[in-house]
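Researcher: We plan to redesign the surface later, but first we want a full-length starting point. Tokens attached.
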């Protein structure tokens, strides 16, 4: 292992001194009919060395999808990998069946056909695999691509938007390679930096205002973006939309899964060279990328050191400033769009999610982590959210390392971090954010609207892919309580004993060909008391469910079959 590290370090030193590689700019798809093929391939990261990869419509990475708000898209995703996978549209607000989570498996040789209307604000999103246990492997080998959404508000602004000329997608990653130059997943030796699958990249960039779409596509590493000579840049968008006005910065931390759009003003700098950098030396302990990944020096992570990137400042991308284009953007706008967050006083519910290690003590970073005491179970719905709920989620990190918390379906607005207002760069629409280690807390507010599905769940999880693969993930469903369901007027369902003062009640579908897939218990106020998806081994036309924790009163049970939702009324009582 030490020999491998020395070889790669030597390669990195030589490459930095003698060679820069032209930055790869992914191609684009602008059609509403999108065909994506997931395939195996090879790529030459190092001169003369072939690395096995995975890609979309090519050997590595995938095309940038350019979508328009309000447009209808029809996507065919064909899996030619020879093994199962999924594709998740990270940050997009789509129905659970179109979201591409772990339940939406694309079998080898099969084609998945999600169709949806683009509801999102103009921003930079991305797509990547999300198969249970192997997300890191498939993403690390190269399956990832940008999604750029455009809308009328963004189009009305004077912003750079000529793709690959003054508007650049930059997927920044670190990877680990073994002695045979093959990508290693679930590794902490990620000592090779790349942008768009290019090591030691450079690109020409015009002497005008230029837009960079930053994506932290790494499995674990947090970057502290900035430029050489501490050049000021301007953040114009967070994960899920434009800001109200540009924010002048010299540093921008982004954890895995996060995106940000920035403008740099290069007027008058023709002929100069600028470095996009990560100033990781400024990170405090407890961040993957700092000198010490845990809160203290005694909290180690296997193979994390020696690594020249940890706690160091390093170059990411060399920008060579060339003459202006024919129609340059030369000024930074003073304002952007209206940003109207949800108000805390309008929230319907507050939920708490606690991150904890399964291994206590100084070796905890080498163990697994849980959310609310459990690991991911495909057969358990951890949270049920009523449609149109405005909710506050309180994320508490009781571990020794910071975790990026990602929620599918929604964009959220951060209320506070450790009780304090969020830094200015985190004020805007987010779907991923780094929760500080050592009992750090992040509270955010969001609304679950437009889509309800009682059987296909969305995910919430840590976006450090090694942690996600190890089970640091949960599931939630959004359920429409106001929908008009079919009451059991023809006695298709037996529910007994009813009323009951017992411990269980039994659902019995008279038609033996029908199967109970899931059920929800709802009180008279329309609030979900519980939701349960039936384990595959227990699916039949009969199921007993617990009622011993219910208070006395009247309830409804929604019974979900393959093609029907049937509602029954029942009474929990200590007296008949």
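Model: Full-length starting sequence:
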């Amino acid at each position: 292992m030490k020999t491998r590290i020395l070889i790669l370090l030597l390669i990195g030193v030589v490459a930095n001194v003698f060679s820069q590689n032209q930055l790869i700019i992914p191609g684009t798809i602008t059609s509403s009919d999108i065909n994506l093929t997931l395939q195996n391939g090879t790529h030459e990261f190092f001169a003369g060395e072939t690395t096995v990869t995975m890609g979309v419509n090519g050997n590595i990475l995938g095309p940038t999808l350019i979508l328009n708000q309000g447009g209808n898209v029809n996507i065919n995703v064909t899996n030619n990998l020879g093994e199962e996978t999924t594709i998740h549209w990270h940050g997009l607000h789509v129905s659970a069946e179109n979201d591409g989570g772990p339940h939406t498996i694309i079998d080898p040789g099969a084609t998945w056909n999600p169709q949806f209307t683009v509801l999102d604000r103009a921003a930079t999103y991305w797509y990547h695999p999300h198969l249970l246990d192997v997300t890191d492997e498939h993403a690390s080998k190269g399956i990832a691509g940008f999604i750029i959404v455009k809308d009328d508000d963004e189009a009305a602004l004077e912003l750079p938007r000529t793709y690959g000329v003054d508007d650049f997608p930059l997927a920044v990653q670190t990877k680990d390679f073994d002695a045979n130059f093959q990508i290693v997943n679930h590794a902490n030796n990620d000592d090779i930096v790349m942008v768009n699958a290019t090591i030691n990249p450079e690109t020409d960039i015009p002497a005008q205002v230029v837009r960079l779409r930053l994506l932290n596509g790494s499995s674990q590493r947090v970057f502290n973006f900035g430029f050489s000579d501490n050049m000021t840049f301007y953040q114009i968008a967070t994960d899920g939309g434009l800001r109200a006005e540009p924010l002048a910065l010299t540093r921008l931390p982004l954890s895995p899964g996060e995106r940000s759009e920035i403008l740099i003003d290069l007027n008058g700098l023709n002929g100069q060279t600028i470095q996009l950098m990560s100033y990781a030396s400024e990170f405090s302990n407890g961040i993957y990328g700092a000198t010490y990944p845990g809160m203290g020096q005694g909290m180690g992570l296997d193979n994390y050191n020696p690594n020249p990137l940890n706690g160091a400042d390093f170059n990411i991308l060399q920008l060579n400033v060339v003459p202006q284009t024919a129609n340059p953007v030369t000024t930074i706008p003073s304002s952007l769009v209206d940003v109207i967050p949800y108000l805390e006083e309008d929230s319907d519910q507050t939920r708490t999610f606690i991150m904890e290690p399964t291994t206590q003590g100084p070796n905890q970073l080498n163990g697994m982590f849980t959310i609310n005491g459990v690991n991911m179970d495909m057969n358990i719905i951890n949270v049920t959210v009523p449609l149109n709920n405005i909710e506050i989620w309180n994320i508490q990190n009781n571990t020794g390392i910071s975790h990026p918390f990602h929620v599918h379906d929604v964009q959220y607005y951060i209320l506070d971090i450790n009780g304090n207002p969020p830094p200015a760069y985190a004020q805007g629409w987010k779907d991923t954010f780094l929760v500080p280690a050592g009992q750090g807390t992040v509270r955010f507010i969001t609304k679950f609207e437009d889509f309800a599905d009682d059987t296909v769940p969305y995910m919430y999880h840590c976006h450090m892919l090694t942690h996600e693969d190890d089970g640091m993930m949960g599931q939630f469903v959004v359920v429409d309580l106001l929908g008009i369901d079919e009451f059991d007027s023809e006695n298709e369902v037996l529910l007994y004993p009813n009323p009951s003062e017992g411990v269980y009640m039994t659902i019995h579908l008279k038609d033996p060909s029908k199967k109970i897939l899931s059920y929800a218990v709802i009180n008279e106020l329309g609030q979900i008391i519980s939701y349960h998806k039936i384990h595959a081994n227990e699916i039949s036309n009969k199921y007993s469910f617990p009622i011993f924790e219910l208070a006395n009163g009247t309830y409804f049970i929604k019974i979900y079959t393959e093609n029907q939702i049937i509602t029954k009324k029942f009474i929990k009582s200590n007296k008949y």
